[in-house]
Every structure is written in structure tokens, then in C-alpha cells.
Amino acid sequence: AQKVTQAQTEISVVEKEDVTLDCVYETRDTTYYLFWYKQPPSGELVFLIRRNSFDEQNEISGRYSWNFQKSTSSFNFTITASQVVDSAVYFCALFGVPITQGGSEKLVFGKGTKLTVNP
Amino acid sequence: DAGITQSPRHKVTETGTPVTLRCHQTENHRYMYWYRQDPGHGLRLIHYSYGVKDTDKGEVSDGYSVSRSKTEDFLLTLESATSSQTSVYFCAISVGTGGNSPLHFGNGTRLTVT
């Protein structure tokens, strides 16, 4: 079974603080993909990043960075110098690739972390 | 913009009535999905489609059916709506070859069952 745990339900920070959103996953598949999505207060869901299980390099995109560690089954997301516009619910998601053909297409989402950045 | 339109955007209906939500895409993608979003549950997959007339169940498919008679349209039907189906429903398309590709989501349909 696949599972994604985002233990932080809500986080509140003050602008310019750094903040890390935790994501821990479980899968028995050797090939899998991890994702982060953002849902701002307006409600739309926006794709942020995808990582496959064979690429453990960290990624940085502006103020955003992602730390993928297979040893701890974690794919954490850090926002540096947070801004009010970063306020959103952030979802981590996992897609495992079954070894056998005909495996189902099940992207599993965590329950999300609501980040509030206060001015 | 991945060209996804959901309709209606908001709907209020009574328990026991059938409801159909529509998802329309303009980019001819093969994979389409229906998710529901509820507080404390995140996003959960209801049904998905991997081609015309090819659909499969997700983790919360009870009480829902889908149809895909054309590439561009994916319909979600609540046969007999219940209050537990009050939720925000999101349609999504995979821009690649399935669940290993990023999803692009529609703007959601807020459904209230009274």
C-alpha cells in the first residue's frame, strides 16, 4: 500500500522566515514519483515539482528547494525568506509504478499542510 | 493553462437526486481524473480514464459513475446524491503518459447536497 504523511497540519510563520514542510512516504515500488502541489486561497491546484525515485539530487527553484532522501523516505519542501503570497495549502503526492502491467493509476496525496505567512 | 473547464462551478442539490459534473479539455490528453477534496482528507481519487470508454475506479468510487464517450469530455455522475458527497470536486488531466506525469487541475466544482 502507498501512503503519504504530512504530519504538519498547519504552520504559521512571519514573513522572511524560512519554513520547511515535511513529507514522508511509504511504497513497496522500486520506481516511483513524488510531487508537490500548491493550493492558494483562490482554490486552484498548481503543480510545483516532480521527482523520480532514481534521482536524489536536491532541487532549487528561486526561494523553493526540495530535499529528497530515500534513506528516510522523505521529500521535504523548504521555502526560504517566505512571503505572504506563499500562503497556501501544500500537498505532497506519490505515484508508484507497479512491476506488473495493468497496475492501477493511483496518485496518492497527503492531507496537506496549510501554510500561513503573516506580514 | 491546460484548457480544462469544469461545469458547473457551484451546485446545490437535494439528497436522492442524480447529479452530473462535466470536465472538458481542449488539448486531447489521454488521461483524465476525478478527485474530491474534503477537509482532513486531502485529495482522493474517485475514478480515472485512460482513453475513450476506458475507465477505472479510484479509492472512493462508491456512489459515483463516470463516462468518457469523447476524448475531450469526462463526466462524473452521482446516481443518487447523499450529504456525504458534499465536497469540492476537481477534474485533472495528465500532460504525459499517466500518473507519473504532472497533473493539471480544473478550477473545481463545489457541490452541496442538502
Provide a descriptive summary of the structure in words:
The complex is a heterodimer of chains A (119) and B (114). Chain A has 119 residues and is mostly beta strands. Chain A is built from no helices and 12 strands. The mean pLDDT of chain A is 92. In chain A, strands 2, 5, 6, 10, 11 and 12 form a 6-stranded mixed beta sheet that branches. Chain A is 0% helix and 52% strand. Chain B contains no helices and 11 strands. Chain B has strands at 4-7, 10-13, 19-25, 32-38, 42-51, 54-57, 64-70, 73-78, 87-94, 103-105, 109-113. In chain B, strands 2, 4, 5, 6, 9, 10 and 11 form a 7-stranded mixed beta sheet that branches. In chain B, strands 1-3-8-7 form a 4-stranded antiparallel beta sheet, with no helix packed on it. Chain A binds chain B through residues 33, 35, 37, 43-47, 50, 52, 91, 93, 95, 97, 104-107, 109-112, and chain B through 31, 33, 40-45, 48, 50, 56, 58-59, 88, 90, 92, 98-105, 107-108.
| Count of extended strands of chain B | 11
Radius of gyration of chain A: 14 Å
- Our count of helices of chain B gives 0
Mean pLDDT across every amino acid position of chain A? 92
User: What series of H and E elements makes up the topology of chain A?
Assistant: EEEEEEEEEEEE
Largest sheet of chain A: 6 strands, mixed
Give the class of chain B from helix and strand content and strand pairing: mainly beta
Number of helices of chain A: 0
Question: Termini distance of chain A?
Answer: 41 Å
Q: Tell me, rounded to a whole number, the average pLDDT of chain B.
A: 93
Strand tally of chain A is 12
Shape of chain A: globular
Q: Strand content of the residues of chain B, in percent?
A: over 45%
The SSE string of chain B, one letter per element, is EEEEEEEEEEE
What is the approximate shape of chain B? globular
State the low-pLDDT regions of chain A, or none.
none
Distance between the termini of chain B: 33 Å
